[in-house]
Amino acid sequence: MMARRRGRNATAGTVFLVGAGPGDAGLLTLRGRRALAEADAIVVDHLAPVRLLRYARPDAEVYDVGKQAGHHRVPQRDIEALLIRLAKAGKTVVRLKGGDPFVFGRGSEEALALEAAGVPWQVIPGVTSALAVPACAGIPVTGRGVASGFTVVTGHECQGSSGIDWAGLAQSPGTLIILMGMGALQTIVDRLVAAGRSPDTPAAVIRWGTRAAQRTVRARLIDLPAAVRAAGLRNPAVIVIGEAAAHPPSLAWFERQPLFGRRILVVGESATITLEGAESLEALGAEAVDLPLDSAVVVHREAAAEWAASAMGSSEAEREGRVGPVVWWLRTAAGVQAVWQALRSAGADARALARVYLVAEGPDAAAALAGIGLNPDVTLEHGADGEGVLPENAAAVWLEAVDGLPHPAASIRRRHQAPDLPAPRRLRLWQADVAAIRLRLQRMLANVEHADGGSSGAPGASGVSGGSGGIDLVWALSPVSAAVWRMVCRTWLGDGAAVPVCVGGQEDVLRRLADGGCAGTESVIGAWEAGR
């Protein structure tokens, strides 16, 4: 925290032009990730993967200025004015641009505008789609005896007069890579062939390269426009022309990963554990969207204050003279944080817990306690009844109630065995903020491509119901996460959210997916659906 705070102060009023890479969240540079974590304001392009906002602060301002071919939601000059205004307000600003900011991204125009306005700025280069997308399609753009070089041009400048020497490109023996050229593909092919390029030259078009929706069409140059139309491909796509495109499809390693084509929503109690799960899935080829619940809860402050007071001698048990330990049975990370904040607000700290017997149900609650320097006396698995773990002389039992989770049976059994044990006090310490969850999902699923080629970028789209948004599976990392997700479905998405839900720890799930390949993936998902 201190390092980030120093960084934010040092960069106040600075604009960072950050290359987001071609789409795979793992291709963001380490420096770009750090800039996102420190940003007060983030100005996002259409092609910048919005999943990268997982690395941003929850309170960061996000401005969507996405531009698509033929449709500029925000004019370029207005974007430049926005960057200047935010920086002059003392904010650390990230301008998140797809690919590399200085490769056909109009980053140079923004840099010139910032320089003219006297605003400090820096460039954080990104992985350009011109190289990453062919690589993920199994097309090395250079190779001994195949292509000794490559040329990258923009397809926007193929209409009418332009500065591109198409005749020279037609005669070049290297690989020709064209970005933003789908709208003029037929014209590009006609010009190259007319200038002497062989109509039999190998060529390929890769759409949504490095993402779960990646699709590749290979054909002879002369046949490429018709093949692309037949396949229904459109922007965003990269066009590759040259002998390099003749490499066999067997080199398309990206599409052979066990979870390629899968989009999985990961729901967890904390940002750390959820991000870990999402990145584990992405390592297997999935496109993961992470939904941490710790930033989307509403704390019941009165209940938390009452709970915290039980450790400080002001509880009913203390007033009645029962002096045994007070049992705190905490079941969620959010519950731990709610009680801890209430304790601190009352001017107390960990010393007030000398008489508290801590029971942590589930690894998230245990990790949250460890995060504030407390080791639970007992750690139970979710759903365990905990019979026999309560101290015989307990003065009071405080049990965290969680919507959608059954109450542990231990307290009831314990009461039958020890009638003097006080009845457990059940309190709901928090509830999910459905509006915050909805906002995050809509932001994270914006412009996510469907497997059938559709898009969920329309405003107000749920992004998950009925399979829209391309979500194939919801991975709830704990029963708590699953309960919250099902509640979100009931209150917001209704019966349309027919997406299978998996509940489980990471190691078991990932091992089965990695070992089973694509067939294993289908069987695991089938088992999850049957067990819901």
Automatic annotation (TrEMBL):
Q: What is its EC number?
A: 2.1.1.107
Coiled coil start-end? none
Q: Which UniProt keywords apply?
A: Methyltransferase, Porphyrin biosynthesis, S-adenosyl-L-methionine, Transferase
Q: Pfam families recorded for this chain?
A: TP_methylase
The protein's matches in InterPro entries, at most eight in alphabetical order, are given as: 4pyrrol_Mease (IPR000878), 4pyrrol_Methylase_sf (IPR035996), 4pyrrol_syn_uPrphyn_synt_sf (IPR036108), 4pyrrole_Mease_sub1 (IPR014777), 4pyrrole_Mease_sub2 (IPR014776), CobA/CysG_C (IPR006366), Siro_Cobalamin_biosynth (IPR050161), Uropor_MeTrfase_CS (IPR003043)
Q: What class of enzyme is it?
A: transferase
Tell me the PROSITE patterns matching this sequence: SUMT_1 (PS00839), SUMT_2 (PS00840)
User: Which molecular function terms from Gene Ontology are attached?
Assistant: uroporphyrin-III C-methyltransferase activity; uroporphyrinogen-III synthase activity
Q: Taxonomically, which superkingdom? A: Bacteria
- Residues forming the Tetrapyrrole methylase domain are 14-224
Kindly list the biological process annotations in GO that this record carries.
Answer: methylation; siroheme biosynthetic process
Similarity comment: family membership: Belongs to the precorrin methyltransferase family.
Identify this protein by name.
Uroporphyrinogen-III C-methyltransferase
